[in-house]
Amino acid sequence: MAKRVSASNVTAYYGGFKAIENINLTVEPKTVTALIGPSGCGKSTFLRSINRMHEVLPGARVEGSLTIDDQDIYHRDVDVTAVRRTIGMVFQRPNPFPTMSIFENVVAGLKLNGVRRKSILDEAAEKALRSANLWDEVKDRLGKPGAGLSGGQQQRLCIARTIAVEPQVVLMDEPCSALDPISTLAIEDLMFQLKDKFTIIIVTHNMQQAARVSDRTAFFSIEKTGDPGRLIEYDNTQKIFSNPSVKKTEDYITGRFG
Amino acid sequence: MTTTVTSHRTRPPAQPSSLRARRLPGYAAPAIAVAALALSAVIVYGTDIGGPVLVVVLGAILYLAGLFAAANAVEGRRSARNRTWSALIHSAFVLAVLPLVSVVWTLVSKGAERFDANFFQTSMNNIGARDPNGGAYHAIVGTLEQVGFATLITVPLGVLCAIYIVEYGRGKFAFAIRFFVDVMTGIPSIVSGLFVLAFWVLVVSPWFNDGRPSFSGFAAALALSVLMLPTIVRSTEEMLRLVPAPLREGAYALGIPKWKTILRVVVPTALPGIVTGVMLAIARAAGETAPVLLVAGGGAAINTNPFENNQSSLSLFVYQQAGDASKYAPARAWTAALTLVALVLILTIAAKLLARRNRLSR
Predict the structure, then answer these.
(1) What is the pLDDT along chain B (362 residues), one digit of tens a residue?
(2) Please, what are the domains in chain B?
(3) Phi first, then psi: what are they for A120, rounded to 5°?
(4) Do residues A183 and A151 touch, judged by C-beta distance below 8 A?
């Protein structure tokens, strides 16, 4: 299921603005990798270029090579929808589809990609909701609107929706930043469980969260506003947080800058 | 932030010593209103300068002044301003609703006279000036067919055009389309009627009609389409733009293709708004007289075939009956106007209910 993601010399632009430059990084299967760094340093841009969501914005483009198990994500013949089915994504704010029920939200990825059989959808919905630790809370109201859940439940619903299509990599863009500590804890617990099956890459501003959930941590930074973001250090989380090899990482982690 | 705030206000406002303040009793406002009206009546009738309308207007002004003075004396300046502005806003609402109520009342009271079975079952064929009967069956058929065809033409075209502008259009071409849609919004209905007359009735229709130009309900539908299209495009466009980008991204991130995202996520989310826009366009088209007169010609007889010969419509019927010399004509005009309003109202309510059923009930 899980696959290795590697980036070499990845540079991404928004029109004429270079957002990240020469990112080289390899994410091992079945690990949680955290991307940390100050605002505007390109963590989210890098994350979005992994499943080709970066190019959704007009004028945005990516250079360099990104591969998933040696398949080039940006090859000319690659079908974008296949990439996104392989590499799922959870966003900063929960975004359940407002016109759909909880059940329809979970199976949206399957249903809109052509799966019709009710039994398959039922099974997939239960499996995904159980994996997202949401089944017990919603099993009696699957027909109710997804937007009626609480923020933390909505975010777990979005995670269920993402894993229902059985991706190999799950990208999370600050998934807990709009949630309270209890919901955050629920999602962090969930990440531990999901690690068995998926490769997880998470962007976070919360350094305790990065230290708690991730196996490896990548620190991004910029020289000054307007400069492209660069990867400063990438190592085991324990090493980054206890004994970083670059001064700048240490400054950021100890709160002396950023 | 703090610096800008303090620079605007050199001194912070004085802190009130108590959070409580003196308030006018609850009966004060109605009492002032009654007193103002009474005073106004005394002034107006005492000096014999006007009637009940002036009493109300003068009473309203006296009420505002009295309310401000009373509140200013008891509650202080801020509270007095608050009360006066609230009263002004409420009176603005009443002023805005008055014409609407008046129109509805006039329509119902005058239209009720001929609101009978005969009106809805007969046409104006062979109805002379001394005949109290006659009805609008032919006009209702005409309105339904013309507006129906116009809706069938403009809804797919308009919604697809809006989808193109919002989801696909980039650069100059999309900009040009938006610009021309804006220009189309301002086309007077008579111009759209003339356009269809010159293009469809005089040039195209002879091909289907042994070389002779022919009026038809379909030509009227085309003219109405020209009027409906920009309304539908612009309202749909606005509604699609209101759909948050994270919803689209959420769908893309599941590997759902763009066209399916638009069809199954974006359009359903915007549907209630799109339906409202379409109903506004239909209401506008149903009320147009000039284009129907120009290209469908009107007529007294029932013609259910929209592709051949003259057809009437409700608004055209109103126009013709209102200008008719027969003493029975005005009643027919009022009833037709009432029918038109009722028809649009029923269609709007039905469309809103349908659109709501698609959304999940909360």
Answers:
(1) 444 444 455 667 777 778 887 888 889 889 999 999 999 999 999 998 888 899 999 999 999 999 999 999 988 889 999 999 999 999 999 999 999 999 999 999 999 989 999 999 999 988 888 888 889 999 999 999 999 999 999 999 999 999 999 999 888 999 999 999 999 999 999 999 999 999 999 999 888 888 888 899 999 999 999 999 999 999 999 999 999 999 999 999 999 999 999 999 999 999 999 999 999 999 999 999 999 999 998 888 999 999 888 999 999 999 999 999 899 999 999 999 999 999 999 999 998 888 876 555 43
(2) 24-112 (no CATH), 120-358 (1.10.3720.10)
(3) -65, -45
(4) yes
CB pair distance less than 8 Å for A84 and B251: no
Question: Which chain B residue shows the shortest CA-CA distance from A172?
Answer: B253
Q: What is the dihedral of CA B152, B153, B154, B155, to 10 degrees?
A: 40
Hey, is the C-beta of A94 within 8 angstroms of any chain B C-beta?
A: no
Interface A-B, measured as beta-carbon pairs within 8 A, has a size of 79
- Nearest residue, CB atoms, B254 vs list A101, A108, A144: A108
Instruction: Measure the CA–CA gap between B187 and B197, rounded to whole angstroms.
Output: 15
> Which of A44, A97, A173, A174 to mutate to probe the B interface, most B CBs <10 Å?
A97
Lookup: tokens for B213: 């130009």
Query: What is the predicted ipTM?
Result: 0.90
Tokens found for residue A108: 């949206």
For A246, other C-beta atoms within 10 Å of its C-beta total 14
Q: What would the two tokens of residue A219 be?
A: 């620190």
Contact A108 B268 (CB under 8 A): no
CB A204 within 8 A of CB A176: yes
- Put simply, the answer to whether A99 touches B271 (Cβ < 8 Å) is yes
d(CA B71, CA A134): 56
A125/B contact by beta carbon, under 8 A: no
Using an 8 Å CB-CB cutoff, list chain A residues near B265.
97, 99, 108
Collect all residues from B whose CB is shorter than 8 A from any CB in A: 170, 244, 246-257, 260-261, 264-265, 268-269, 271, 358-360, 362
A5-99+169-253 maps to CATH 3.40.50.300: yes
Could you tell me how many helices (H) and strands (E) chain A has, helices first? 10, 10
**Distance of alpha carbon A49 from alpha carbon A52, whole angstroms:** 5
Q: Which of B242, B247, B254 to mutate to test the interface with A (most CBs of A within 10 A)?
A: B254
